[in-house]
Amino acid sequence: MTTAQPQQASFADMPTPLYVASPSRLNAWLDCPRRYRMQYLDRPKPPTRPQRAHTSVGIATHNALRDFWDLPVSRRTPAGVAELVRASWIDAGFRDPEQSMAWRARVRDAVIEYLRGIDRDRQPAGIERSVSLKTDHIAVTGRIDRLDERDDEVVVVDYKTGRQVPTDDDARTSLPLALYAVAAARVFRRPSRRVELHHIPSGTVVAHEHTPESLQRKVAEAESIASDLRRADAEFREVGVESSRFAPRLSAMCSWCDFRAHCPEGQTMGPEKSDWAGLDAAGYPAAGSNEGGPAS
Questions:
Q1: How far apart, in whole angstroms, are the C-alpha atoms of residue 272 and residue 269?
Q2: Of the given ranges (63-77, 84-98, 146-160, 280-294), which has the lowest mean pLDDT?
Q3: What CA–CA distance (Å, rounded) separates 61 from 161?
């Protein structure tokens, strides 16, 4: 006697689930599929190298600028900012304690000088605000450094702390900034087309004014990347590291990669950079005595 096998429910007519990602995940695939695989797919995740000094500088700067807006107006002074930098400081990756202290002073002065140039009495619409954007194909979630309300518009502000001073073209081509603008417009129900990069070491501000058409092109770009990732992720689930989709994208950046120890091809691109090699005083003010008096 043959026992009838239960029929599996058919899911053929169900819609494809949205691909869930962050802008960082999308960009990681563009930067290097091998690094993307190790960062997002490998389990267990390969251990990364210890944190570099320039990363410590970036995190501390962002945290100080975030916490500044929680200060009462009376404490939004150079002395108050210096205390925020001190409390936010991460003593990791530096050559020695002397180098760490010198860079803390540089960051303190750079943050103070940057804040002198903005309206410190006007509270932003959002600080490190998480926003989400859904289309028919993707669900993207990210966190915006700052959102400003200017006239009838919401402006996306992203802080930069690296050696490279950004250009207007960097603001124009940035995929995360465009996605944040689309998401912010939906959250606040107001136009959001201007995106800005604020380079804290030099005080440089670069910007781009998107159009509805250019923002839609960026959304389509994100959907295209997500489509590639959907196929790559599925193949990884089937064959793992044997998949040919995750070849490394070799460049000078391989010497800086946190996963370099696990990538033989990347190691051929040159010696690994030291923990403090990303530090460069160019663009930072010399350490001075900016801690007294009003931040005017």
A1: 9
A2: 280-294
A3: 8
Q: At what angle do helices 53-68 and 78-88 cross, to 10 degrees?
A: 130
If DSSP codes are grouped into helix, strand and coil, which group holds residue 37? helix
Whether the bond into 44 is cis, omega within 30 of 0 = yes
Check if the beta carbon of residue 146 is closer than 8 Å to that of residue 124. Answer: yes
Distance CA 127, CA 70 (A): 10
3-state secondary structure 4-15: CCCCCCCCCCCC
pLDDT in tens, 230-278: 999 999 999 999 999 999 999 999 999 999 999 999 999 999 999 999 9
User: What number of residues does the chain have?
Assistant: 296
Model pTM above 0.85? yes
DSSP H or E run through 126: strand 126-134
